[in-house]
Amino acid sequence: MSLEAIIFKNGKLRLLDQLQLPFTTTYIDIETIQDGWDAIHQMKVRGAPAIAIAGVLTVAVELNKQNFQSVDQIKKFTFQSLDYLVTSRPTAVNIGDAAEKIKQFCLSLEKEVTDPNNYKLKLTEKMNSMLDEDVATNKSIGKHGALDIIEKLSGQEKAKILTHCNTGSLATAGYGTALGVVRSLQEMGNLEHCYCTETRPYNQGSRLTAYELVYEKIPSTLICDNMVGLLLSRQKISAIVVGADRVVANGDTANKIGTYQLAILAKYHNVPFYVAVPTTTIDLNKRTGSEIVIEERPSKEMTHVKDIRIAADGINCWNPCFDVTPADLITGGLITEHGVFKPNELESKIREILRV
Length: 356
Ligand code: MRU
Known about the structure:
The chain contains eleven helices and 16 strands. By secondary structure, it is α/β, with parallel strands linked by helices. α2 (about 50-65) packs parallel to α4 and α5 (about 115-150) packs across α6 (about 180-185). The two termini are about 40 Å apart. Bound molecules: 5-S-methyl-1-O-phosphono-5-thio-D-ribulose (MRU).
């Protein structure tokens, strides 16, 4: 059995409450649009692809529950709900991309289907298909990334990978992006070890990635975020592989806070730095990283762990949730489901492949 962050069965949506991990496995039922928005905003479900899928399936839940008199009513409800859900977290582009695709699907569907029940059925089927598509995309990312890394290994050497935040089954519909590359290396027999950072302040690394690595029996070690410099100076790390919340046209990449400093350390130590992303994370409407909105989270995430204060009372806090890594630090490349691209060829390749 693999870890499932999102379960959608018989029109019902259940999300694994990631705030409770790794201590308790609890699923929450999503019954309304507001439930879905809250779960995303409070980070009960998180990770760019998982946020998008959870958002869209939240709309599917309400569509299944309600009776609509016309296609127009369904369309209006779907558009309004998606517009609201997109506001739940600002940095990850995937939910906006998914909302746009669903809207386009609605518009083309209304040309063929006029019966509201049939329209609703086709629309919810389309929404449901996102789960399988995401797993297939991630497996392809994993394969492309693993092969690129293996190509750079010498002789019988196996890969030692460092990753940041959580980009695995919990952050996607399954398998994962950057962690999918680690899984692929393991499946191909080419992984020696995976290091994961703690990822302060929300601890996605120590709570979630470490949980997935242990669960999958992948040889792995947890380090604090401030140990990366020493690790790279003492160990031969084959590659750093991270995920992303938004990659813009010039290759600048928004990802979990701390990614930028990892990329600088990687450059200094000559370690290839890769970003693993589905093409749904690539935003060609923005030219450079300076246009990306960086989400800022409540200071309580820094000052407390499980309601226990760990910082001096009264201190001011700044808690940006993401940072932007300049494209020229992404030395290994951007691993997509269509192949590995250098940042300076990303836009032309993606436009060619997706015909956009
Ligand atoms: O704040 P989070 O936990 O949603 O941030 C997650 C990340 O930054 C991931 O690296 C990114 O979403 C890619 S997940 C495949």
